[in-house]
Amino acid sequence: MNDQTIQRPPVAFVIDDEPQIRRLLHTVLESNGYRVFEAATGSDGVAQVAQRRPDVVLLDLGLPDMDGAQVLRRLREWSSVPVIILSVRDQDNDKVAALDGGADDYVTKPFSSAELLARVRAALRHAQPQGPDAIFTSGNLEVDLSKRLVKKSGNEVKLTPTEYALLRLLVTHAGKVLTHRHLLTQVWGTKATEQTHYLRVHIAHLREKIEDDNAKPELITTESGVGYRLSMSRI
């Protein structure tokens, strides 16, 4: 008897009213090892997500029966499934609203297949729970959350309490965009949501300590007008 565990392929669910987009996503995802299901309306999408329990949802904002933001709110009432927004809307306020509303990422149409697959992989990695002793690594950065220890190329990096608080948030949500509002609220409190200059200054100091070239950051990347993302190691 073969005791080898057979791992099921990850399940992706697409909610988009454009047939050509659904076909494209179905082809790209299926050819890369995903099982793919789809819906053309928000109401059908919510119902099927509840039934199929996918590993990741790709959600369009412009649906015929309800706005994608409403679909997201309904999903977040009972599910923590990673949700990636796919939309032609490229305004910062749309991105911020979606991310603050519980989306894990936001990809603007048109997009490349390679970028989409990378975002999906990042969302799935972030969805996998880590134990309290988990050590995060990305490039030459190593963060031991249990010991509050940060190393760069094997050498300990001394951070201020605020810098560590920011890095810890980015690490525990690695691969996901964190909005300015979210970071400010978590580190400085609800009264600091408009004090983006605090954030810029401390992110700059943090980059000086952990980036190889803080003028061309590769670890902490800026999502212009939206927030910041900590890149994850590529396996």
Summarize the helices and strands and which ones pair or pack:
Layout: E1 11-15, H1 19-30, E2 35-39, H2 42-52, E3 56-60, H3 68-76, E4 83-87, H4 92-100, E5 105-108, H5 113-127, E6 135-138, E7 141-144, E8 149-152, E9 155-156, H6 161-172, E10 177-179, H7 180-188, H8 196-210, E11 220-223, E12 227-230
Parallel strand pairs: 1-2, 1-3, 3-4, 4-5
Antiparallel strand pairs: 6-7, 7-8, 8-9, 10-12, 11-12
Helix pairs in contact: 2-3, 6-8
What are the key terms here?
Arc Repressor Mutant, subunit A, four-stranded antiparallel sheet, disordered N terminus, Rossmann fold, 235 residues
Describe this protein's structure.
The model is unreliable at 1-5 (pLDDT under 50). Strand 11 and strand 12 form a beta hairpin. A five-stranded parallel beta sheet has the order 2-1-3-4-5, with helices on both faces. The chain has two domains: 11-127, 3-Layer(aba) Sandwich (Rossmann fold); 135-230, Winged helix-like DNA-binding domain superfamily/Winged helix DNA-binding domain (Arc Repressor Mutant, subunit A, Orthogonal Bundle). The protein is an alpha/beta fold. Helix 6 (161-172) crosses helix 8 (196-210). The chain has helices spanning 19-30, 42-52, 68-76, 92-100, 113-127, 161-172, 180-188, 196-210; strands at residues 11-15, 35-39, 56-60, 83-87, 105-108, 135-138, 141-144, 149-152, 155-156, 177-179, 220-223, 227-230. The longest helix has 15 residues, at 113-127.
